[in-house]
Design goal:
The protein is an alpha/beta fold. Helix content is 32%, strand content 21%. The C terminus is likely disordered.
């Protein structure tokens, strides 16, 4: 018999939703999965020429999702601005929501708690190394991969698994097409909307951090106005389905092992890896860190390759 996580929902914390008094939704936002946000170097950080426009595009996509959720019965919606430099233009944000920026201590589960009924994502990007993905990364372009109990995940998977431990159902996500496939594979039944399509094949797993940031920046985009219309429709479908269908919880089985691998960079010439463990809690393992060490296999492969080429030239 598995041991229960201390983070899991109790009857008292979910009593309000069981009685139908409210329908509380947590909206996780990011910028790289938004229609019209083209690349890292011109759009996604302070000082880039289109950063303010990117914030506007994200905020309007969030508003579209909020409108769909409210039409479907949501009564309490909290929007989380999780883009690194900030992504929400609060002046443009739907006044029916609350909004937050910044985390508590410990960081995970990112202010989510068991009082929420549902969690949704707007503007989400694929995990690191996703083929035909746009602006793929996990936390930063320095990540090569992250896995929980052998399952490769990205930022979507991190929060979706935390939500499952809390008993909060993942019901909707929008972003690029590769991300929607990632979400559907991890959470069967989740409603998704694709607003752009990456065009580059390959994972980029053999690239350095600097190379990968340039590699993953090409896509075909839906017009932002059309994207917002589809996001509203998708969010409405999701919350309507969630009231009559059972989906959105990822089965979790302790103990938990989390593995994070980092790419080489100019400051880190070899790929590195850290392994974290927790006996009972997915959220617990997300709040655990250990020392990063060089990946032995990667180092050996890099040394062996030049010798093979010299032999061939002879």
């Amino acid at each position: 018999m598995s041991r229960k996580s201390p983070y899991q929902a109790t009857d008292s914390t979910r009593q309000h939703s069981d009685k139908g008094r409210t329908m509380k939704v947590y909206v996780m936002t990011d910028m790289e999965g938004v229609a019209g946000v083209m690349n890292f170097h011109e759009w996604t950080s302070h000082g880039t020429p289109y950063y303010d426009m990117a914030k506007e595009f994200l905020t309007l996509e969030v508003n579209a999702a909020v409108d769909g959720l409210v039409a479907g019965g949501a009564t309490d919606i909290h929007v989380v601005d999780a883009h690194g430099p900030g992504g929400i233009n609060v002046k443009l944000l739907d006044p029916r929501v609350t909004v937050s920026r910044g985390w508590s201590d410990p960081v995970w589960p990112l202010l989510l708690d068991a009082s929420y009924d549902f969690v949704v994502w707007v503007g989400q990007h694929p995990k690191a190394g996703t083929e035909y993905g746009h602006l793929c990364h996990t936390q930063g372009i320095n990540y090569l991969d992250e896995s929980i109990n052998g399952v490769s995940i990205g930022e979507f998977g991190e929060l979706a698994m935390c939500a499952s431990e809390l008993g909060v159902r993942a019901i909707f996500a929008s972003g690029d097409c590769a991300f929607t496939k990632e979400a559907q594979a991890l959470v069967p039944g989740i409603e998704t909307v694709a607003v752009k399509w990456g065009v580059k094949p390959g994972t980029g797993n053999d690239m350095t951090e600097e190379q990968y940031g340039r590699f993953t920046g090409s896509a075909r985009h839906m017009h932002p106005t059309r994207a917002r219309s589809l996001i509203r429709e998708g969010a409405l479908r999701a919350i309507q389905r969630a009231q009559r269908e059972s989906f959105g919880i990822i089965p979790l089985a302790p103990p938990f092992t989390r593995v994070v691998k980092l790419r080489p960079s100019k400051d880190r010439p070899k790929a590195t890896m850290a392994v974290m463990k927790h006996p009972t809690s997915l959220i617990g393992v997300m709040n655990t860190w250990s020392e990063f060490k060089p990946i032995a296999g990667k180092a050996k492969a890099k040394k062996a390759a030049p010798k093979a080429k010299r032999t061939q030239r002879r």
